[in-house]
Give the backbone structure.
Amino acid sequence: MSYIEAETLGEQVRYGLVGTGMMGVEHINNLAITPGAVVTAIADPVSTSLGWAQTALGERADGVAVFDSAAALAASGRCDAVIVASPNHTHRETLVPLFDAGLHILCEKPLATTIADAQWIVERAAQSPSVFWTAMEYRFMPPAAEFIAEVHGGTVGALKMLSIREHRFPFLVKVGNWNRFAANTGGTMVEKCCHFFDLMRLIIRSEPVRVYCSGAMDVNHLDEDYGGRRPDIIDNSYTTVDFANGVRAMLDLSMFAEGAENQEEITAVGDAARLDVFIPEGAIVRSPRVGFGNPKQASRRIVEGDAAALAAGSHHGSTFYEHQRFIAAVRGEGVVEVTAQDGLMAVAIGVAAELSARERRVVTMAELGV
């Protein structure tokens, strides 16, 4: 029996969705297979995006209220929980009426594009009795989740080094090409890499101290022009992060390597063994220390996700698993696993990396006030 078939209906939760572009549609597809979830309202100022959502809803679109703003959706009284999937730079203003209405909120990454806005969100979330959840899907990819559990279970011994590689395709086209400009996204190291900085904190279980990033826009978007504006987003970088407990981490990003067999590769090295996970392959490989010249003793296994969850999005099923945890928290049957503070820290590391790449220097978290 699949994960989905094994779930019970539970208490129905009425969902609103603000931002109905590509990621919004992925949320709609995953809510369709989340027991007890029903979409009752959608909001977006762009009619084309609203059309994408209505197509994704299909027959379920009947009776779904359509709004052109988060404020109108919040005032409608039609929702218990709201997913924010609007462009990064709109998150703070989008969240104001949702907080004021006391709604449960799942806010897409990055939490905000600046540390100041992220800190404001943390403060408002702390004042709200409702659930606030930062959407960090990569935590919930089944192979990644199993990898994290093994590291925390001591399979590598005492963790000393963590490396993450994402070799992938360029940024996709978004409505109004908003994702071509760091002013809208926070920069690639915030927009894209906050996922990986969040994984670093989660796996290492410590806070960042200093960041060094070497990156540039070398291949993608060089010939694009938007009314005289040229894209200014990093498309490749190396970032190192030193953590307070002495563990060091590294991110290797290339956004012109879509031909790679695996998009993500994560490696943890401890004093007893090395552990790798490869996504989307789903392989986890443990390589214990054997001493110089002795036969290798690596073991490999494949971690698979639910087929329906894999088919419902482009994040290796993680969006589905995230929604199961979120709806449980909304019902009071689970805890918030990704807090606003987690979202803030992922943004802060990304901001430090962007600053480091521009100024070609080490940036300490202390100088950023976090």
In short: The two ends are 45 Å apart (CA to CA). The CA atoms of residues 213 and 353 lie 5 Å apart. The longest strand covers residues 159-167. Residues 1-9 have pLDDT under 50 and may be disordered.
